[in-house]
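G., the chain you wanted modeled:
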Amino acid sequence: MQEALMQRLRAITPEERRILDGGAVDKNAYTAKAVFTVDSEKMLERGRLISVRAHTRFAPFPRHAHSYIEIMYMCSGQTVHRINGGEPVTLNAGELLFLGRGASHEIERAGMDDIAVNFIVLPQFFDTALELIGADNTLGRFIADSVSRAGGSDCLLFRVADVLPVQNLVENMVWALVQETKNRRRITQNTMALLFLELLNCTDRLAAPADEGEQSTLVMTVLREIEENYRVANLTELAARCGVTVSYLSAAVHAATGSTFKALLRRKRMEKAAGLLSRTRLPVGDVIAMVGYENTSYFHRTFSEMYGMTPREYRLRQSG
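Predicted structure as tokens:
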């Protein structure tokens, strides 16, 4: 990260000065409620969907939740977290931790050079990211849904310190927000979309901070397989590759997405078919083969159920 930006983030804040003078984290600065849930109204200016602040150092940060989505990025050093009361998890320089509104965590004392930034994000901020990623991207939807749904307890930890595109995009967002860049909302929304696209390629860097995190890793592996190999994706082969039973993997996918593997795969194939029908003049039979089906009658029936019309009718409507 650029040294001028690091110097700005390294500066001791008034809150940190009070802590160094013998104080502690002031809960009232974060919430007016008895339960320690950090309130977005205290963290965000009215009308803003995203902001960034340096993580408070020099004192342990007590266990808390958020009324927003938090994305923590470690600029230098490290921080140690307990998420949902689990075992300690270390966030190292260059790594990203997504925390949904249902997750709680506490953070051990950070030192002078343990510099992290917290992105404070309202769920609707991700709308643009999903639009730019594409409506047919199941994995992108899962990343956004897993950190935005209320009542969940999801967290996603990406060990991406050596992934240069991710590092550049995060720095761009920090810069735009810290420097109060013109058009920063549009810049950060589009940069977040690009970050999501890069993270889709980093599911092998997704760590498991808890049992639920381990399931998220498995689910993202399945969803990435659907995205990249929808023509031949097979749940039995995936379970063997992941070292779990088919029933366990199937249940994990259903719990995380609300859909079965078969339904997700069918949806992906139909969306790809719809795209080919609208953008090309390929015969319908060729489209069916290209998306992985051999049974044409099953394809026609399934397509009609999903889109309310036959493939031919869909093509004519799109071209009209």
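The CA atoms of residues 71 and 98 lie 5 Å apart.

Shout if anything looks off.
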